[in-house]
Amino acid sequence: MADRSPSSDPGLLLLISLSGGPKHGHAMLLDVANFAGVRLGPGTLYGALTRLEEDGLVEALPLEGRRRPYRLTDAGLGALRGRLTGLNAAVSIGLERVASR
Amino acid sequence: MRPILRLYPSAWRRRYGDELSDLLDEMPSTPATTLDLLRGAVTQHMRALIDRVAPRLVSAGGPPMPTHPLQRHPTAVALLAALIAAPTVIFVVVSFLAYQLELPGMQAWLQPFMDGLQQAPRIVDLFLLTAPFIAFVLAALPLIGLRLERVDGELRITLALRAHTLNVLVLGICVIVGGFLASHLIVEFLFERP
Question: If DSSP states are collapsed to H, E and C, what string results for A12-30?
């Protein structure tokens, strides 16, 4: 069965990371590794960032030295809220069923 | 690892190349990182290819978009299909009345036409036989929609069917007439051949 957990969705992990405030690429990698235990590769990171930016869920900020930070847009915050609410409902139901066995 | 960046599409490199290059300076070079970059390059090329090849087919949602002229004029296509199938439909209906229901006088009325048909070029036979199938395909085309869309970064291909009354009516007639012809031919082939 394909792994469709949040930890296999780089886009969701980046949205969660950016919900804590603007970050550049390397800071996002460290943050995701810290809260999810997932080490994203640089190609995966920028592939996900490309999609999120095209979809208007994140936006690039002006360069800070050689680094470009990104931040969550309002649409990104709404999308993240929707995804997490859906996951939360599924997790709650799953935990209830597991507890009842 | 910098040479791998040259494998990414040039437009993508112009936007993200410096950032990714800067990130690579801060990361250890490992086989996993190299593979991840290669996979990223392939992914970006595929995205660029899809953006180039299928811009007219990619929609942002909503009802299926017309993808060919036949879908924009379903009624005209249905009427054309009906016109193509009409000779066969008339022939089958009249034959059914004459030879299956044996209506009085019908066989005598029909006989000159049947004699003429036997002496007509084979192309006439062939047209009468294939017309319902040609008409079926023609009438069905406007009812089939193919949509390509990107959802969460994944390409999704959706086959959409729609019901247009006249086209569905022509399809039904073609199925009945085609089925009648096919069964007639099968019975003739199996039981009535010398």
Answer: HHHHHHHCCCCECHHHHHH
